[in-house]
Amino acid sequence: HRATTTTTTTSHLPSKHRFSRKGEIFHQLYLAKRKEKNVSSKLRTATNASSIPLNRPREVAIPCLLLRVKYLPPRARVSCYGEMGANISQLERDIGADQFPPNEHYFGLVNFGNTCYSNSVLQALYFCRPFREKVLEYKAKNKRTKETLLSCLADLFYSIATQKKKVGSIAPKKFIARLRKEKEEFDNYMQQDAHEFLNFLINHINEIILAERNQAKGGAAAGGTTTSKNGHAGTATPSLNHLLNGCGTGDNGTQQPQEPTWVHEIFQGILTSETRCLNCETVSSKDENFFDLQVDVDQNTSITHCLRCFSNTETLCSDNKFKCDNCCSYQEAQKRMRVKKLPMILALHLKRFKYMEQYNRHIKVSHRVVFPLELRLFNTVSS
């Protein structure tokens, strides 16, 4: 205030002491405040400016200043955001409101201490359009009162999709509470692995779908059932391998295939493992289902390079020789993995932890991995 009151004219001062354009604006604000006490009183009531300390975060203090600028002449309001409307967020101002798709919402998820692992996966799944559509379709078709992890996920997605604002934040309290009930490993405040959470979530959703399908058929489904932790009957899928195999236990104890769910339709692909014996040149191949690909991360690399390395030929020798059925003995061989069938949505797991012998522990690999907006899998996909 002292600098403002003593400097009533800036044109006669040396250039280094002159006010900048911003200084002139706030100088005019100060004079207007003194001359128009009634306007100033109403303004303090509207903005609650008197209760805002100087050390408050900028995003809290700035709107009060912007509201004050509204009382300046139009010339002084040229660079202000007040004309854009109070409903437009800072993100929309920075990017441009016209850049947001009309029916899309961008909401951050509140972190409850250690839930960044789940928030990152949930964000990725929400913007996976086929998955989101199936989850919202599930909510529309299932009006039951029983709470499951899938119903909590559907409620969360529905809450985001029906928000009036385009951007904001939302607290997934109900989903996290249900997650901690379903899985003891997540019922703590320790750091968790996002990939493990993704595998658990996909498995559990598939289990719920199969259980409800069996109940709809009156318990006459081909697969066996078990009672899960939350009390509903479901097909036992304790690990991702069970979901990949897609089998249940029949009455005679044999493995019988189950009908695929929309989880399989979205995420399941087929890998082909090709092994060529270096002794007899016989090539054997084996197909297996996958829900994600785990790729190594190197320095100065890209997703395309990681996938090419995934399909590189590996030589099996020494203690890791291949047992050739044609030679009836262990022989040196060459092996490679190729994607036979791509899924609708390809999930990639970047192996960010690597065991280092010199440290005798796992260390995190923080190398930057470049990814294209359009991925072409040359020399990776068969045919």
Tally of alpha and pi helices: 13
Separation of the first and last Cα atoms? 75 Å
Q: Which architecture of the largest domain per CATH? A: Alpha-Beta Complex
Strand order of the largest sheet: 8-7-14-11
Structural class: alpha+beta
In CATH, the homologous superfamily of the largest domain goes by the name: Cysteine proteinases
How does the major sheet shape up? Answer: 4 strands, antiparallel
Low-confidence stretches: 1-19, 42-86, 221-239, 247-255
How confident is the prediction overall: mean pLDDT?
75
Strand content: 15-25%
CATH third-tier fold name of the largest domain: Cathepsin B, Chain A
* Overall body shape: globular
The portion of residues assigned to helices is: 25-40%
Give the domain tally.
3
Count of individual beta strands: 18
The whole-angstrom Rg is 30 Å
Summarize this structure briefly.
This protein is an alpha+beta fold. It has helices at residues 2-6, 21-35, 37-47, 58-69, 90-95, 116-126, 129-141, 149-161, 173-182, 194-216, 240-245, 262-267, 303-310, and strands at residues 106-109, 167-170, 226-227, 233-234, 247-249, 255-257, 269-277, 283-290, 293-296, 301-302, 314-316, 322-324, 329-331, 333-341, 348-351, 353-356, 361-364, 369-370.
